[in-house]
Amino acid sequence: MGEHEHMSATRDGYDAAAEEYAELFRHSLRDYPLDRAAIAVFAELAAGPLPVLDAGCGPGYVTAHLRDLGLDARGVDLSAEMVALARRFHADMDFRIGDLAALDAADASLGGVLSRSSIIHTPPEHLPAVFTEFHRVLAPGGVLLLCFQAHEDTSQLAWPFDHKVALAYRLSVGRVAGLLREAGLTEVARQIAAPEEDPIRGFHYANLLFRKS
Length: 213
Prior knowledge:
alpha/beta; Rossmann fold; 7 helices; 9 strands; globular; Class I SAM-dependent methyltransferase
């Protein structure tokens, strides 16, 4: 698929499934303590005067959690229906429609970017552009928490899988970390959950924490 095609397919899929998705994952943070721990570390490192961005925010549950952790959090998502739900559930917060590779944020304007299970719909060849964009919007010292369905194999970057909403990719932890370094980010930590911790598909799940030097 070309870029326009994959974005359209992802947007249309999430627009159609928005209500169902929002209900299904309403308590996703409650059910994943390792993710909560990674997000708590991210929030501590990103604390400060600058806002943080939930990139691929869906219905805004994680964005609201970041706010509850004391951050000036806002969200962006490709799906207009998801953004509408986020605005309905959290009317006092800033949610916008947008593209991860072309964020509506000034250079070096964010203290942190969190992307939880949102890069998995990006074709592998487009990931460098997304990571370069994350680097652009982060202030020096700003942190990125990148969370995704993962594979420990480094023989290739991505393996497609049958996500119910849109084509998705399970990503090599080592290859993704390499792309982030090429984008100018420095690794702080990585957390890899065992496949047994994923009750849906039995995949590894990665939380990678990087910093803009």
